[in-house]
Design brief:
extended; mainly alpha; 6 helices; 140 residues
């Protein structure tokens, strides 16, 4: 039977405390090792529909999420209207900017209240209907 002195036990724990983090980091793949990527960095390639989806509005576009969501809906409407007008099934997202959505505010404005200039749910409904109409035309 082996007897461990307190100093010997401290040495063993110290070695384990030092060795465990090293072994864990040695097994963690990174971009330079050529090994598999960590789960959090795995990206799934978007399908064509996702690649053409209007992204979330940038935070500096407007001070509130309500306004940013409204501008995103306006941009969706503008894109769908152009697609229907030109009878194209191509993604036109690259032809539109956030400034274009801001410029069209007066067309969709329902209130003089600067914090609630439009009804976002109504804009969502309009965008959804136009996108459905466009999708139907492209599926024929």
């Amino acid at each position: 039977m082996m007897v461990y002195t307190p100093n010997a036990l401290r040495s063993v724990f110290a070695m384990l405390a030092f060795a465990l983090p090293l072994s864990a980091s040695a097994e963690t793949p990174d971009s330079t090792s050529g090994g598999p990527k960590p789960f959090g960095s795995m990206a799934i390639a978007p399908d064509a529909e996702e690649a053409c989806r209007v992204p979330r509005a940038p935070a500096d576009l407007a001070e509130t999420a309500y306004l940013r969501n409204g501008y995103r809906a306006i941009l969706r409407i503008l894109i769908a209207e152009r697609q229907i007008e030109t009878e194209t099934c191509d993604c036109l997202l690259g032809e539109f900017t956030w400034d274009m959505a801001l410029a069209e505010l007066s067309r969709f404005q329902t209130s003089d209240n600067p914090r609630l200039p439009f009804k976002v749910l109504d804009l969502y409904a309009m965008a959804d209907a136009l996108e459905a109409e466009h999708a139907e035309g492209c599926s024929e």
